[in-house]
Amino acid sequence: MRFRATAKSSERSNAAGAVELECTEQGLLLGYRGVFALNDGYVPGALATRDVDVPWSSVWETTVEGSEVFLEVDVSLTPLNRLSLSDFTSGYVELPPEESRKRRLVVRVASAGLAFTAALAAFAGARGAGASGSLALALSASVLTALGVVAVGFWADRFVATPVPKLSGNVAREVFLAELMRFRPAVTRAAPPPAPPPGSRARAGRTG
Questions:
Q1: Most buried residue, 43, 97, 156, 173, by CB count within 10 Å?
Q2: Which residues does 97 contact at the CB level (< 8 Å), separation at least 6?
Q3: 136 near 87, Cβ under 8 Å?
Q4: SS3 for 181?
Q5: Distance of alpha carbon 174 from alpha carbon 182, whole angstroms
Q6: Does the 2-90+166-192 domain belong in CATH 1.25.40?
Q7: b/e map of 76-105 (b: 16 or more CB within 10 Å)?
Q8: C-alpha torsion 174→177→178→179, nearest 10
């Protein structure tokens, strides 16, 4: 199963951006989807979009740190080798063809109705404003308005059938870790930071 996650800037990481991960028998498939290097002072470097096959022997560290997963691989394979991963998603549900057609029909009908209404409003507005008394100018305004609305409708039509993630958040992260531990059992979980002692916040407020 392929997973997507977001590499975030942190004290330990040296890269940030969108990442794809997949556990295979041969190793970890690490896909950079617009990842940039973090230099000193967190100055972004060049964007990287490529796939790296990381043998399991080259996966140096996998540590769960709260809601994030810290991953470090052999730097000889990629200089973007230390990632603090969060916001996991996995798998996508394809809409049934009938449901996809229904959604697109709704968008198209709504776009046509809105385009007609907007064209009438533009025509009336142009005529009411005088428009130098030109009927042609008013018609041009209505046609351009209608075309603009139709263009937005076509743009929206592309996304109504976009598949949605099967898994997300903590569930996707834990499923990824379960697959990871099939090939690399040494996944550690960092201890959560100690809770502040009772009343420490109140005392801090009084001293401030």
A1: 173
A2: none
A3: no
A4: helix
A5: 13
A6: no
A7: ebbebbbbbbbbbbbbeeebeeeeeeebee
A8: 130
